[in-house]
Amino acid sequence: MSIELTTADGHVTITNEVIATIAGGAAIECYGIVGMASKKQLRDGIAEILRKENFSRGVIVRQEGEAVHIDMYIIVSYGTKISEVAHNVQSQVKYNLEKTLGLKISSINIYIQGVRVIQD
Amino acid sequence: MTHNKIDAALFANMVITGATHLSNNADKIDALNVFPVPDGDTGTNMNLSITSGANEVKKANKDSVLEVANAFAKGLLMGARGNSGVILSQIFRGFAKGLEGKEELDIDSFVTALESGVNTAYKAVMKPVEGTILTVAKDTAHDAKEIAKQEEDIESFLEKVVQAAKKSLKRTPELLPVLKEVGVVDSGGQGLVVIYEGFLAGLKGEEVPQSHDETMDLDDLVNAEHHKLAQDYMSTDDIEFGYCTEFMVRFEDDKLSEHPYDEAKFREELSEHGDSLLVVSDDEIVKVHIHAEYPGDVFNLGQRFGSFINLKVENMREQHSKIVEPKQEKPKAKQPFGVVTVAMGTGLTELLKSLGATVVIQGGQTMNPSTQDIANAITEANAEQVIVLPNNKNIVMAAEQAAELAEVNVAVVPTKTIPQGMAAMLSYNPENSLAENQEAMAEASSHVKTGQITYAVRDTQIDGMTIENGHYMGLADGKIKVTDADQLTVIQSLLRELIDPEEDEIVTVISGQESSEEEEQAIIAFIETEFEDVEVEVHQGDQPIYSYIFSIE
């Protein structure tokens, strides 16, 4: 699976891995996120925070015709306004992908997989 | 008067003043917003967040500073909007945690609370980005610890803390490349500085100034305004809910008996109508902020509970298209100098622009621009002072008239040919005054000799010469010198007439639309053999009518 862009000079192919990495990288800079989670967590029931090289397991890129949809599985910090953090992630990821890849993203769906309580 | 303690009521006043001060400056903070997403809403978001916090404080018990800080933190959390709002809520959540068991605030507990705020704020992010509000909070807490060692009076302490926050804000561009690129300080950091300034004013019992010129650098705002073009990434059509709608309703008992007020239910109803929803209510009033497509429907929902205190609707599509409007609609800053000149042909136009002309009017010879055309070009040059080069004796008059009409200082250098105009451009120096330029350019243009090759469109007699239709003519500085059926013959005679091998160093050939490669080669060969010490340069001018123009210096 990959995204094909056609320019006057030929084709550009962007693999989903690349999109996932950029989306994940943008997400972890978002305030209020303490980790990316694996999508499989729903099945495993183990909240594991992914390492950078595995971000793509928590970022699912789906294509439906021309439209690109992204599902992100994240873990947020306890005590933040979660709805707002999720919304910030959406706008930050959308902006970063559009800026770096020139990709219009149709939707970014956020799945909060966990809330991390940080001991003071 | 020295005092070293802040009681709950005073602290509440500080918080409320901080919020007011931020509200007064929200639009300026919006203008600075370039990171993480340049959507110009940081000030708005922080304002909504802190207003919610201040409202909680107004309602809170004020027996201890801890109660006030807790109320502030709770209000911030509930009303948190945007990245900056969430971070702000965390900073003050930590701040409140640091005041555990405190009835009053002294310098030491202030430092502890600031540090605790930074700790909490940094814990809620995986990869803190430095050069943001986080950095300003961290540096301020760090410096506050040092300041506390030297200060006993809490007012002077806070004054120095605010100074430290400002210093840290100034450093943000060094830490975050995008800020440096645009030439602004971080918008969230600026917001935090404004809040701290408000705290200080509240502590002193001063009114906060309506607008704020001290730390908000006008240059910053202008730079950010330019950068707003980055917001082009979002097109105005993408705005789903077009009106930023706000209102306040004062509850009325008779209406409430018919429609009991339930905040959660009301919020639920409103959320059907738009996004960015904020509902804040107490026993008397409900305040709503929503981005909706049909503000009227939203107002109707609110009016069921009482009467409006105030209403505000802004069309965000208008605002957004203003932000992303094309550059030419923005009044650009006037340049100190502009040059307006006249030429025909794309090559010549490019040539003159490369020499520094601001506006090249298409015209000359058979289509002379009018006074109005030149006046328009002077306006288009958008400069404090404009030099006009007519490059044709028939345009000099129009240029003089346009100069008199113009609202800016205009100097006409009466160049009669393209080569004279080019020579004038070569001695143009934007560093010098208008008068100096006018003199130098006139001087330079008087040293150049012009040769022009064209053909006759009818039989005629000029300057004592008989010219036949279709024959070529060679003009030296506007006077016909040679005519012949063969173009190369005309060119050779004309150049012999014009070039003084003792004096002249360079011949510039400007080829017209009707020139050809072979002709050019023949001309170059002729000049190089005939005048050994003279250099030849050829430029494509693409001018009509004159197949060749020669510039001799």
Q: Could you report the average pLDDT of chain A, rounded to the nearest whole number?
A: 80
Distance between the termini of chain B: 82 Å
Shape of chain A: elongated
Radius of gyration of chain A: 15 Å
Structural class of chain B: alpha/beta
Oligomer: heterodimer
Report low-confidence residues of chain B grouped into runs of 5 or more.
211-215, 225-234, 326-330
Number of helices of chain B: 21
* Count of β-strands of chain B: 16
Spans of chain A with pLDDT under 50 lasting ≥5 residues?
A: 42-46
Percent of residues in beta strands of chain A: 35-45%
Helix proportion of chain A: 25-40%
Q: Order of helices and strands of chain A, N to C? A: EEHEHEEHE
Organism (chain A): Gracilibacillus salinarum
Family (chain A): Belongs to the asp23 family.
InterPro entries (chain A): Asp23 (IPR005531)
Protein name (chain A): Asp23/Gls24 family envelope stress response protein
Write up what this structure looks like.
- In chain A, the strands form 2 sheets. In chain A, strands 3, 4, 5 and 6 form a 4-stranded mixed sheet that branches. In chain A, strands 1-2 form a two-stranded antiparallel ribbon.
- In chain A, strand 4 (59-64) and strand 5 (67-77) form a beta hairpin.
- Helix content of chain A is 31%, strand content 36%.
- Chain A is elongated.
- Chain A has 120 residues and is α+β, with helices and mostly antiparallel strands.
- In chain A, helix 1 (16-28) crosses helix 3.
- Mean pLDDT of chain A is 80; it is low at 42-46.
- The longest helix of chain A has 20 residues, at 82-101.
- In chain B, helix 2 (42-59) crosses helix 3, helix 4 (82-97) packs across helix 5 (107-123) and helix 6 packs parallel to helix 9 (187-204).
- In chain B, strand 2 and strand 3 (285-292) form a beta hairpin.
- Chain B has helices at 8-32, 42-59, 65-79, 82-97, 107-123, 133-150, 154-175, 177-182, 187-204, 218-227, 253-258, 263-271, 295-303, 316-323, 346-354, 371-381, 396-405, 418-426, 434-446, 487-498, 517-530; strands spanning 243-251, 274-281, 285-292, 306-315, 335-343, 359-362, 383-389, 409-412, 449-455, 460-462, 465-467, 472-476, 479-484, 506-511, 535-540, 548-552.
- Residues 211-215, 225-234 and 326-330 of chain B have low confidence and may be disordered.
- Chain B has a 6-stranded mixed sheet, with helices on both faces. A 4-stranded antiparallel sheet of chain B has the order 2-3-1-4. In chain B, strands 6-5-7-8 form a 4-stranded parallel sheet, sandwiched between helices.
- Chain B is an alpha/beta fold.
- Chain B has 21 helices and 16 strands.
- Chain A binds chain B through residues 28-35, 77, 79-81, 84-85, 88, 91-92, 95, 98-99, 118, 120, and chain B through 36-37, 39, 77-78, 80-83, 85-87, 89-90, 93-94, 97, 116, 119-120, 123-127, 129, 134, 233.
